[in-house]
Structures are given as structure tokens and as C-alpha cells.
Amino acid sequence: MKHVTSVEKFTHNIRIFYLSAAAKSAAIAMPHAILTLIFLKKGITYSQIAAIQAVYSSAIILFEFPSGILADKYSKKILYISSNIVMLLCYIIVLNCESFFMMAFAWFLYGTANAFETGTLDSHIIITAKKICEEEKVQTVITEFIGKRNSLAAISSILGAGIGFILYQFIDIYIYHIMLLLMCISGIFILFQYQGEQTDETQERPGIIHLMQNTVYELKNSRALRWIIAGFGVLQIYIQIHFQMWQSFFLELGYDKKIFLGLYLLFQVITIIVYRLPVFQLMKKYMPALALLGVMSVLFLYLTAHRSFSILFYCVPVIIVFMLQYYLEILYGMKVREENISSLTSLTSTIMRCFGAFTLFIAGITIKHFSLRILYLVSAE
After folding, report:
1. Residue 365 — very low, low, confident or very high, per pLDDT cuts 50/70/90?
2. What is the CB neighbour count within 10 angstroms for residue 202?
3. Of 147, 158, 149, 143, which is closest to residue 269 (Cα–Cα)?
4. 200 vs 324: which has the higher pLDDT
5. Cα(234)–Cα(356) distance, rounded to whole angstroms?
6. Where does the pLDDT of residue 372 fall: very low under 50, low under 70, confident under 90, or very high at 90 and above?
7. What's the average model confidence in pLDDT over 224-240?
8. What is the mean pLDDT of the chain?
9. What pLDDT does residue 375 have?
10. What angle do CA 219, 223, 229 make, to 5 degrees?
11. Rounded CA gap, 18 and 24, in Å?
12. Is the pTM of this model over 0.85?
């Protein structure tokens, strides 16, 4: 009976997590298709946009690992809700301020909010799966959870971006009021419905220093985890350029801003498709060939002047990089120990953000002197 109850609680928590994550993803995605336009309307230049995104990554670097330690020591649920609260402050600043300094501060809060969320409820679900599922089913459950989580995030992002793009034509920056509402709904789901970790109050919790030492020890003694984390870091070089610069890239190619929504939806559909692919089989058989295909596509993107082909050659490496990321996420979920999952997940993400911040710093310098095509070419190499 206890096992049945645990399974029911596990299933309930997954449903609530999906609902909360859907609302949160939709809120975050609402300005994505027109974010560059919002910045430009506030008087922010392309190089300042890159600097703002670097501030965002820097905030995550500062707070992500400490927040992971706190999630392992105290409550993953509280950290997740705190993330939503900080995101609300970010939105309020964007609504009411115009200057580069305040936009940078808003994105600093945005990064802090994402840092607080890393390794919280999704890690709790993976821990629970390892505890209550039969050993031979753990990989299937984790793979299904990661796939559905990311597919749902993509679908929510499509809806959010579509609604945001349309409403922006009528209410401009005030789409952030709707984002505030969705972020509140996301937090309420978790606050009142998600059944958090049950701890034994008589058992002494490990100290923060002890948790940090255990995290470093696990990483030091697991070659597989080191390779996985290194892979995440390398992928960030291209992922950051894609997510932060795609609008600027297509503007440079001469595309009209009206197609931004279509391109954004295309990228989200790619995400949904990727997370339904049998990545284990594909990576085992074709990883070198797929990597070569990605590099060749970026080379053709640099050389081609045809608009239709430029979209095709842009999408191919995006698909391959997303496939690699999915593959690494599954491997990581299987390899990481339960005791340090939030701390190590946060440390992993911090390392990834270091790659991302450095990439955006170089990007800000590069686009002052060279075209964005050169930037994409260098990132793929």
C-alpha cells in the first residue's frame, strides 16, 4: 500500500510540475519573438543586447551553485517558488524602465531566477523515480520525463510566443502584465498542490561545506560525469549564439521582422520533434556523421546568398545540437547520485553558463568588427 501511495504521489507531482512549467514557459516565451524589437525600441544597441545577455549569464554563474547547495540542504520547492518571485520583479522593471542599466539589472534578476530554479523540482522527480521504480524501468521513466518536460516547454513556448507576438501589435510592452499573471499561476500550482520532500526531522542534515565537498568528490571520481559536463559546456558555445542572436542574424541577412514569429515557431517545432526521436540509437550509430553534417551546414550558411537555403542550413546544426543535448541530459540523469543531484546539477549548469558568458562576451566584440555570419561560423568550428 505504501508503494502504491508513493506512485500516486509521484504521478500527481509530475502532473502539477507539468502544469506549473507550462505556465512558466509560456510567460517566459511571450516576448521571445519580438525581444530584439523591445530592446531596440528602448534605445538598446546590438552590442548592448549582447552585454545584457552576458549579465544574465553572469547572474546564473554567481547564484546557481549556491542555490543548488541550498536545494539539497533545505527545500527544492521553496527554491522553485523563489525563482518565480524574482522573475516577477524582473518583469516589473522591464515594464517601467527604459535605460540600458535598468535592462541589465532586469536581466540580472532574470538570470538569478533561472539559477534558483535549476536542479529543483525536476531533480526531485528524478530522485523519486530512482527510489520507487524498478531498476530496469528507471532509464525509461527518466527518458520519458525529460522528453515530455522539454516537449511541453516547447509547446508552451510556441503558444506563449504566438500570443505575445500578436498582442504586442496591439498592447506593446504591456504583454508583460499577462506574463506577470502566468508567473503567479505557475507559483500557485506548486505552492498549494506539489507535495514536496519528506524529511526525517530527527536526522541531522549535512552542512553546506559537507555538501560542497561531496559534490566535488563525486565529480572527481566519475569520469563519465566529467565527460558529460564537458559536452554540455561545448554545446553552449553554439546554443548561446543561437538563442541570443538569431533575430539579429536574420535581420542582417535582410529578412523582414514580420517572419520572426514563424522562425521562432519553427525552432520550437524542431525541439518537439527532437525530443521524440530515439536519440540513443541515433547517437550510437551516427554521431560522427551528424557532427560533420552540422559543421558543413554552417559553412554553407556562410557561403550561400539564397534566403531559402540559408534557413535550411541554419536549422540543420540546431537540430543536431538539440539531439546531442537531449542525449547528454539522459546520460546525466542516470549517472548522478541522488544525494548531490541539485548541487551537481547547479554546478554543471554554472560551468555551462561560464561557456555561455564567455561566448556572449566574444560575440559582443566580434559583431562590432565582423558580420554575424562570421560569428556563427566560428561558433560551429
Report:
1. low
2. 5
3. 158
4. 324
5. 9
6. low
7. 83
8. 82
9. 52
10. 65
11. 10
12. no
Alpha-carbon gap, residue 64 to 66, rounded angstroms: 6
What's the average model confidence in pLDDT over 177-189?
97
Q: Which three three-digit cell numbers place residue 151? A: 516537449
Contact call for residues 341 and 119 (beta carbons, < 8 A): yes
Cβ pair 283, 176 in contact under 8 A = no
Q: Which amino acid is at 162?
A: G
With cell 524602465, the residue in question is 97
Spatial contact of 60 and 177, defined as CB atoms under 8 Å apart: no
Judge contact between 226 and 336, C-beta under 8 A: no
| CA neighbor of 277 nearest in space, from 159, 141, 156, 151 | 151
Chain segment 299-309, per-residue pLDDT in tens: 777 776 566 67
Residue 188 burial (C-beta neighbours within 10 Å; 0-12, 13-18, 19+): middle
CA atoms of 127 and 239, how far apart (whole Å): 27
Q: By the 8 A CB rule, do 127 and 223 touch? A: no
Spatial contact of 238 and 360, defined as CB atoms under 8 Å apart: no
First and final CA of the chain: distance in angstroms? 55
